């Protein structure tokens, strides 16, 4: 298809920037940003611009690999698929279906995530399926469900941000993680609005802020309670809104009143005058928003922490109103859609609950199976990985690299090595794929069609722009082939089409009537419109925006326009009221002590993405971000006797990592930061604490106790 331009979307983060791809006669692909797509409006970050480099990378897998005599050697597709089917079937026979695990990824398209959930439950009959999106945003999802009765990352489009009055951005370094989004915040400031950033580090995002609060890692919950305390003390509660649209205020108010400002200053290290200034900036404008990201979410109390920020919005009447609200900045490319359609341990398509009998009946009917045959909820991501080699004997892994991205990664690496059988589908030989018994080379974003759902809840069509290299198949083909082999006489492969639109048509029916209702969305609409916001049921809509019309005989049928803005009339709870969370402060699971006196927090850098499986294969990105580092304050560096670039060992109760020192006054003296994109000696997740949030089961990546050691050259 030389020189034909295909409009599509970036393979990486949840912004899902629009881009045009043009295949070249030399086999390459050019990428140009799409000015018509309202999310990135003609901008791309370096990751998006260089994404085609992975398509043609010399380290791309082009043949299935099977382990033979201890090494991975090329094999035919038939041989590799047979080996996987045999491995899973053997485990199922010898140990039962729950001994087969399935682990997915937040980068999988909606169609793949949907099919993977169905594959686990219908073909393998296992409850043991979860995905790496559990590490990304599940605390915000849990808090949103509790408060609003619905979880959609942003309940409004990004284009609302410049028109609000103040945004409090909690634990997000979007200037590095999703750079094109920064322009919405710049426009906010040009319009007279203000930006408050809460982060232990003076990040590139914090540098843009009107006010930067730098709490100790793991204390954002106390910070939010302290701000709510001041809101009450200063008479800034929107009493009418609280009475009409919320429930549970008295308990939340009582909890906040126990967190007076000086107490909060002692916990967080944020001076009281800064707390007062944040409240003033947030409360004085007519409209305001709070946006959270991984900072408050990746904690052993992440659900409560996000709940405390939602409380602040509810008490001040800043939720479910135009240009005001709470939102979560989802991280992974399809982190939102990936959690809506069934690859999460406790969910069925359409954001239905697996333990809801009506939901089971509905989905079972679409799948043509007995509702009683569907397994119940399984383990969460870390718990699933931790059970490998013990309860779970075989694992099918698609689109994830837990050897680098899981907390307590050295332990997880050992668990993976102890499996009876591991099969991995990936585009390159990731650190996890290196441990597999069978590796299948699969298609990438530009080589396949499918939908994703970005952080705004906007469903998008990613289009195939080029043909994959010879010898590569799609994840959908893999599931079809495995279903054929494992289903025997039952013909289960018929339920696993290889055409993405066919899968989406079934997903529409499975999601119909559920919280994340996609039934009114079609590939035709997605091709014509710049995405459609869910919920979008079949038939006429009542929310804002004009629907398209199509003739049907003499009857005009109006398509639902989708729902860009949620909760304007009522919240999605049974009585329509939002719920306050009665939360109180508690420390991180692991606080500094004499042996481990410093806090470690982890995160991302602009030129790498997640475990780096793709971006570490791009020369331009490697030149910009060649390896891990330990960011620390000059006072800490002086105590250690470390100069810029010196190797520093960071030691936690789980292991030891070594990386060069990067010394800056932009971090608290009691805290060090490491990016988590690299394997090996500098692997940040060797150190991180898998303490789980009791509701979301999200690990505490953002705070653990460590000590630093100088490393002799
Ligand atoms: Fe891709 Fe995210 Fe960069 Fe946009 S911001 S180009 S979606 S990585």
UniProtKB/TrEMBL annotation:
<dbReference type="Pfam" id="PF00384">
    <property type="entry name" value="Molybdopterin"/>
</dbReference>
<dbReference type="InterPro" id="IPR006963">
    <property type="entry name" value="Mopterin_OxRdtase_4Fe-4S_dom"/>
</dbReference>
<keyword id="KW-0004">4Fe-4S</keyword>
<keyword id="KW-0411">Iron-sulfur</keyword>
<keyword id="KW-0408">Iron</keyword>
<feature type="domain" description="4Fe-4S Mo/W bis-MGD-type">
    <location>
        <begin position="3"/>
        <end position="59"/>
    </location>
</feature>
<dbReference type="Pfam" id="PF01568">
    <property type="entry name" value="Molydop_binding"/>
</dbReference>
<dbReference type="InterPro" id="IPR006657">
    <property type="entry name" value="MoPterin_dinucl-bd_dom"/>
</dbReference>
<dbReference type="InterPro" id="IPR006656">
    <property type="entry name" value="Mopterin_OxRdtase"/>
</dbReference>
<dbReference type="InterPro" id="IPR009010">
    <property type="entry name" value="Asp_de-COase-like_dom_sf"/>
</dbReference>
<dbReference type="InterPro" id="IPR050123">
    <property type="entry name" value="Prok_molybdopt-oxidoreductase"/>
</dbReference>
<protein>
    <submittedName>
        <fullName>Molybdopterin oxidoreductase family protein</fullName>
    </submittedName>
</protein>
<dbReference type="Pfam" id="PF04879">
    <property type="entry name" value="Molybdop_Fe4S4"/>
</dbReference>
<keyword id="KW-0479">Metal-binding</keyword>
């Amino acid at each position: 298809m030389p020189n034909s331009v295909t409009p599509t979307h970036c393979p990486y983060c949840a912004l899902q920037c629009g881009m045009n791809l043009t295949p070249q006669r030399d086999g390459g692909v050019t990428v140009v940003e799409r000015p018509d797509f309202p999310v990135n409006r003609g901008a791309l970050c370096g990751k998006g611009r260089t994404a085609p480099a992975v398509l043609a990378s010399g380290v791309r897998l082009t043949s299935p690999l099977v382990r033979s005599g201890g090494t991975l050697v090329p094999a035919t597709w038939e041989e590799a698929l047979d080996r996987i089917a045999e491995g899973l079937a053997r485990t199922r026979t010898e140990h039962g279906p729950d001994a087969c695990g399935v682990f997915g990824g937040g980068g999988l398209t909606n169609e793949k995530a949907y099919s993977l959930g169905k594959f686990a439950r219908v073909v393998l009959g296992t409850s043991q399926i979860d995905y790496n999106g559990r590490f990304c945003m599940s605390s915000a999802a849990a808090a949103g469900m509790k408060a609003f009765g619905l979880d959609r990352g942003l309940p409004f489009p990004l284009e609302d941000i410049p028109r609000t009055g103040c945004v409090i951005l909690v634990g997000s370094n979007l200037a590095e993680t999703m750079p094109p989004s920064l322009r919405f915040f710049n426009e906010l400031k040009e319009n007279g609005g203000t930006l408050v950033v809460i982060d232990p580090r003076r990040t590139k995002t914090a540098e843009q802020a009107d006010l930067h609060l730098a709490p100790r890692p793991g204390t954002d919950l106390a910070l939010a309670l302290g701000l709510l305390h001041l809101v009450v003390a200063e008479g800034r509660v929107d009493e009418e809104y609280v009475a009409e649209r919320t429930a549970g205020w008295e308990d939340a108010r009582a909890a906040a009143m126990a967190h007076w400002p000086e107490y909060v200053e002692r916990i967080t290290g944020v001076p009281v005058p800064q707390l007062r200034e944040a409240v003033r900036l947030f409360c004085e404008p007519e409209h305001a928003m709070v946006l959270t990201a991984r900072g408050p979410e990746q904690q052993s109390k992440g659900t409560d922490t996000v709940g405390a920020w939602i409380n602040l919005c509810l008490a001040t009447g800043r939720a479910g109103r135009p240009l005001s609200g709470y939102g979560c900045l989802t991280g992974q490319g399809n982190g939102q859609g990936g959690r809506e359609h069934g690859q999460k341990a406790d969910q069925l398509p359409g954001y239905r609950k697996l333990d809801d009998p009506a939901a089971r009946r509905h989905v079972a009917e679409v799948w043509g199976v007995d509702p009683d045959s569907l397994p119940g909820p399984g383990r969460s991501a870390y718990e699933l990985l931790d059970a490998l080699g013990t309860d779970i004997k075989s694992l099918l892994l698609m689109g994830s690299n837990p050897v680098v991205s899981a907390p307590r990664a050295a332990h997880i690496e050992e668990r993976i090595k102890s499996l009876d059988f591991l099969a991995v589908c990936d585009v390159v030989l990731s650190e996890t794929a290196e441990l597999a018994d069978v590796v299948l080379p699969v298609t990438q974003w530009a080589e396949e069609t499918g939908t994703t759902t970005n952080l705004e809840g906007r469903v998008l069509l990613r289009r195939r722009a080029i043909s994959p290299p010879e010898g590569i198949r799609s994840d959908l083909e893999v599931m079809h082939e495995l279903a054929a082999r494992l289903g025997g006489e039952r013909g289960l492969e018929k339920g696993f089409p290889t055409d993405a639109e066919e899968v989406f048509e079934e997903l529409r029916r499975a999601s119909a009537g559920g919280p994340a209702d996609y039934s009114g969305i079609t590939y035709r609409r997605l091709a014509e419109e710049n995405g459609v916001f869910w919920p979008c049921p079949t038939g006429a809509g009542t929310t804002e925006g004009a629907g398209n019309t199509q003739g049907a005989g003499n009857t005009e049928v109006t398509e639902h326009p989708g729902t860009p803005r949620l909760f304007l009339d009522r919240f999605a709870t049974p009585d329509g009221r939002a719920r306050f969370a009665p939360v109180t402060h508690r420390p991180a699971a692991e606080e500094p002590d004499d042996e481990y006196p410093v806090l470690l927090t982890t995160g991302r850098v602009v030129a790498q993405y997640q475990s780096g499986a793709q971006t570490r294969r791009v020369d331009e990105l490697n030149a910009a971000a060649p390896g891990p580092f330990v960011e620390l304050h000059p006072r800490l560096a002086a105590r250690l006797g470390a100069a810029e670039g010196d190797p520093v060992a960071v030691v936690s109760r789980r292991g030891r990592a070594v990386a060069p020192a990067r010394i800056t006054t932009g971090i608290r003296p009691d805290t060090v930061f490491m990016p988590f994109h690299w394997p090996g000696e500098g692997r940040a997740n060797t150190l991180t604490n898998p303490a789980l949030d009791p509701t979301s089961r999200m690990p505490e990546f953002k705070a653990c106790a460590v000590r630093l050691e100088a490393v002799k050259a």
